Amino acid sequence: MTLRGRTIYGKGVIAGKAVVMRTPISFLGDVDGRRGTVKAGYEEKSIGGRVLILPFSRGSTVGPYIMYQLVKYGNAPLAILSVKADTLVLIGAVMAGIPLVTDLPDSVLGVSDGEEVVVDLDGGEVRLGGQDR
């Protein structure tokens, strides 16, 4: 399945395994920038080297600095895909150099953790599962 969104930052094509957050996250409260993990209920998910998918973020103006910390410690996601990107995620992605695609349909949240995702940043397209469904 191919989904269309809008690339805010980044160029080229990125492929990787998905980490999906079905509820909004706070980069300040839910993400550990040193360890590259995000809280998901009572467990943690590693986001380093993965494609992070979320509906949108919530929270603090410190969020962009946490995104920068992810890069500094080598634990940044390959890209962030969102249904709706707020100003803080936009700033954080550009500041940290993390590719960002937003304005994706809600169906992107139906991706499974570990599913292969191909992100065409030049075209604003996201291909799921390596094939059309």
Short account of what is shown:
This protein is of the alpha/beta class and 133 residues long. It has helices spanning 27-30, 63-72, 87-96, and strands at residues 2-4, 6-9, 13-20, 31-32, 37-40, 43-46, 51-54, 79-82, 100-102, 116-120, 125-128.
Descriptive tags:
34% strand, lyase, 133 residues, Glucose Oxidase, domain 1, lyase activity, 8-stranded mixed beta sheet, Phosphomevalonate dehydratase small subunit-like domain-containing protein, 3 helices, PMDh-S-like, 3-stranded antiparallel beta sheet, alpha/beta, PMDh-S-like_dom
Topology diagram in text:
Blueprint: E1 2-4, E2 6-9, E3 13-20, H1 27-30, E4 31-32, E5 37-40, E6 43-46, E7 51-54, H2 63-72, E8 79-82, H3 87-96, E9 100-102, E10 116-120, E11 125-128
Parallel strand pairs: 3-7, 7-8, 8-9
Antiparallel strand pairs: 1-11, 2-9, 3-10, 4-5, 5-6, 10-11
Helix pairs in contact: 2-3
Tell me what you see in this structure:
Keywords: Lyase. Residues 25-101 form the Phosphomevalonate dehydratase small subunit-like domain. One of its GO terms (molecular function) is lyase activity. This is Phosphomevalonate dehydratase small subunit-like domain-containing protein. The chain has helices at 27-30, 63-72, 87-96; strands at 2-4, 6-9, 13-20, 31-32, 37-40, 43-46, 51-54, 79-82, 100-102, 116-120, 125-128. The strands form two sheets. Strands 1-11-10-3-7-8-9-2 form an eight-stranded mixed beta sheet. By secondary structure, the chain is of the alpha/beta class. Strand 5 (37-40) and strand 6 (43-46) form a beta hairpin. It has three helices and eleven strands. The chain is globular, with a radius of gyration of 13 Å. The longest helix is centred in the middle third of the chain and has 10 residues, at 63-72. It has one domain (17-115): Phosphohistidine domain (Glucose Oxidase, domain 1, 3-Layer(bba) Sandwich), CATH 3.50.30.10. Helix 2 (63-72) runs parallel beside helix 3 (87-96). The termini are close together. Helix content is 18%, strand content 34%.
